[in-house]
């Protein structure tokens, strides 16, 4: 969901938090750190007052978004809407 949110534009932590509710701050922070370490997201700190942090997709992150979109379409077409529906 974070990669999908960043696919439309870069964002600050608070912008991502609002767009991904109901995720907690600590979980979002952990996931962003993992995505940065994996090279899918970049973390840019501005020199302004107060300093700001923006997150954006790297080239590798942007390249994986279409794959994730296809996976989401497959899940919609082939998985039941809720657990326990059917056999």
TrEMBL record:
PROSITE patterns associated with the record: HTH_HXLR
Superkingdom per UniProt: Bacteria
Keywords (A to Z) from UniProt: DNA-binding, Transcription, Transcription regulation
InterPro entries: HTH_HxlR (IPR002577), WH-like_DNA-bd_sf (IPR036388), WH_DNA-bd_sf (IPR036390)
Annotated ranges, domain HTH hxlR-type: 1-83
Pfam families membership: HxlR (PF01638)
Name listed for the protein in its UniProt record: Transcriptional regulator
Organism: Acidiferrimicrobium australe
């Amino acid at each position: 969901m974070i990669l999908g949110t960043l696919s439309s534009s870069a964002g600050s932590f608070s912008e991502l938090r609002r767009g991904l509710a109901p995720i907690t701050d600590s979980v979002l922070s952990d996931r962003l750190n993992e995505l940065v370490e994996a090279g899918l997201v970049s973390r840019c700190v501005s020199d302004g007052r107060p300093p700001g942090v923006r997150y954006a997709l790297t080239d590798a992150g942007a390249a994986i978004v279409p794959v994730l979109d296809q996976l989401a379409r497959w899940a919609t077409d082939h998985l039941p809407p809720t657990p326990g529906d059917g056999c």
